[in-house]
Amino acid sequence: MASPFHEKIGTNYHPLDSEIAQIKELLVHPRAEIKRLDGEIAQLRIQRHEFKEYVAGHKALISPIRRLPPDVLREVFLACVPPRENAVMSAREAPLLLGHICSVWRTIALSTPRLWSSIHIAEPHPDLAPSFYDGCLRLVTTWLRRSGALPLSISFHRPTFREESPFFDAIAAFSPRWKHISLSGQSRVMLSREDVPLLETIKISDYSVADNVAEAKRQDFLGGACVREVFLGTEIDPLQLPLPWSQLTTLTLARLNNAYARRARQLSSSAALRILANCHSLRECVLFLTHEPDELLDLPSSVEVPSLASLKLSLDVFAIPAHQNPLDRLQLPQLASFIVHGRHQPTIFPFLTLLSTAKMLKNIEIETLMFTAETLVAFLQRLPPSVQRLSMRQNVIDPETRSLVDNEILHLLAPSSPSESCLLPVLDTFTISYASSFSDDDLLRFIRVRMAIHPLRQVTVRFFRLEETKILPELESIMDDFGLVVSLDYLTTSSTWNPRDGSVILFS
Fold first, then answer.
1. How would you class 52 by CB atoms within 10 Å of its CB: exposed for 0-12, middle for 13-18, buried for 19 or more?
2. Which run of H or E residues covers position 353?
3. Distance between CA atoms of 364 and 405, rounded to whole angstroms?
4. Quick count: other Cβ atoms within 10 Å of Cβ 268?
5. What letter would DSSP give residue 341?
6. How many helices (H) and strands (E) does the chain have?
7. How many other CB atoms are there within 10 angstroms of residue 38's CB atom?
């Protein structure tokens, strides 16, 4: 639109009083037009909304989901349930959500027992309104009845450690159909093995039974004929429990998970060896072991667990000479993964004999605080050539703690000369977390040498220092050609500082 003030618009020009009056006069008509157009736009928006609703309503009538047969829709519903977790009692998630869409969906959902064959129950806190508590309790029973005669997967969490729980009583009424049960905050389970004929998986994070072994033996639901997987956080000697050791395939014996309990006695290495001597079918095992003095009397000289493929040990400080650790008497011919965490530095790493029998080992994860520089080298030299994944981490991060993975370790894994022997010749995954003292250039050399020996797939290093040299550009061609993934994390520069609270952001 033409304006006598066109050349002044967008400048810092100050109009005269007479020009101000002229400008106001110029704006009368455009403002009226804007108001008229706004009215037309509002009407058009109303019409547009009406047309959209008309189209959307009719499109919904012919949508493909409405034409799906009930059997297909039922499979879609089943895919909405979490595959690796139990369904929660929430109207925002399946299966409850599916019953709130329409009457057809509700009918299909209520007639599909598989939708209701898993449930996670978080018992409401007793301080909440009684009506809410009672409503949740009724829903549990209704939910489980909808599952028909199917085996059940149930997880139950309590916020307190009261002796009685009407929620547990409700799920106990369905114990003949338990297949997988996970309990937290429920220390007592007064059931027999006859009460749980289908039970395969047991997870109880705080199984105490008031430290009464006789009472524990009477609760022999642990010894069900189908039990194969057991996770217990307990203060009771597991050997006193009626567990079916010979048929277990997965076993975790952890610390008692009860903040109100006294400091629980943990499992000793000798007790662990006696347990494993009875576990002929075991494939996966996780043990949390004690720091207390161990009994070495009347132990078998060797114990073979023929099918054990994965062993994870969490160790406190050893109270016996490291080379006498009873678990070093294990023979594990099928062991593929060995993970050990701890903070003691013995003169000899305690599981060298165990590792010497593990000819099929592929995965190693260790805590470097368990080693000295010498014992770490000796440990790596004893590993079988089958190892593909090596992870070394240091949980304590401070300048006073020496990081043991240095250039000497890199040289053992990637020798400079082809005539030198190379440890772990088929290594393809290398992970170091805050345990390194080598330079960026050392790491670059290591990667290049290893790629010539056996291509790496992944290298992950977290440094407790600043970046020295940008090596990723040097590795771009290797990463592109071989699909190598390299992830490097460093401390940030000292200028990374929050001016509001004074905090320093340490990691990039």
1. exposed
2. helix 352-356
3. 15
4. 20
5. E
6. 12, 16
7. 10
Q: Tens digits of per-residue pLDDT, 246-259?
A: 999 999 998 776 54
Q: What pLDDT digit, counting tens, does each position of 122-145 carry? A: 999 878 899 999 999 999 999 999
Mark 173-199 as b/e (b = at least 16 C-beta within 10 Å).
ebbebbbbbbbbbbbbbebebebbebb
Report d(CA 104, CA 125) in Å as an integer.
Answer: 35
Instruction: Please give the structure tokens belonging to residue 311.
Output: 């062993």
How far the first Cα of the chain sits from its last, in Å, is 54
CA distance linking residue 377 with residue 85, whole number of Å: 42
Closest by CA position to 339, among listed 405, 392, 382, 388: 392
Count of positions (residues) in the chain: 508
Cα–Cα distances (Å) from 169 to 175, 193, 488, in that order, read 10, 17, 52
Burial of residue 166 (CB within 10 Å: 0-12, 13-18, 19+) is exposed
How far apart are the C-alpha atoms of 136 and 139, rounded to whole Å? Answer: 5
Q: Where are the alpha helices (DSSP H) in 383-471?
A: 407-413, 440-453
Angle CA 79–85–89, to nearest 5: 85
**What are the domain boundaries of the chain?**
17-62
Give pLDDT tens digits for 438-495: 999 999 999 999 999 999 999 999 998 899 999 999 999 999 999 999 999 998 765 5
Q: Both tokens of residue 364?
A: 């190693």
For tokens 């000295």, the residue is 372
DSSP assignment of 85-134, as one string? SPPBS-TTSTTGGGGGS-HHHHHHHHT-GGGGSEEEEEPPPTTS-HHHHH
Respond yes or no on whether the N-terminal peptide bond of residue 499 is cis (omega within 30° of 0). no
